[in-house]
Amino acid sequence: MTAPSTGHLRSIDYQPALDGLRGLAVAAVLLFHHGVAGARGGYLGVSAFFTLSGFLIASILHVEHERSGQISLRRFWVRRARRLLPAAWLCLAGIVVFGHTVATASQAASLRGDVVAALGYVANWRLLATGGSYEALFSAPSPITHLWSLAIEEQFYVLFPLLTAGTLVLVRRADPSSAVARWATAGTYAALAGVSVVLMAVLHDPGGDTARVYYGTDTRAAELLIGAAAGVLYRQRRAASPAPASRGRAAILVQALGLLTGAALLITWARVPQTEPWLYRGGLALHALAVVAVIVAAHAIGPVRGLLSFEPLRRLGLVSYGVYLYHWPIYLALDPARTGLDGPELLAARLAVTGVVATLSYIVVEQPIRDARLVRGWQAAVVAPVALVALLVSLVVAVPTGAGDDLAALAAAPPAVQEVDLHGPAPAADLPRFAVFGDSTALMLAYGVSQWTRDTSAATYAGGVIEEGCGLTRFGEVDYHGTRRPVHPDCDQWPDEWPAWVQEHDADVAIVLVGPWDVADRRLEGDDEWRAPGDPTYDAYLRSEIRTALGALTEVTPTVVWLTSPRIELGRNDVPPPPEPYPASDPERMQRLNAIIAEEVEAWPGESVHLYDMADFVAGLPDEGFDPSLRPDGVHFTIESTMVVARWLMPQLVELVSTSEP
Question: How wide is the angle at C-alpha 463 spanned by C-alphas 462 and 464, nearest 5°?
Answer without folding.
Answer: 120
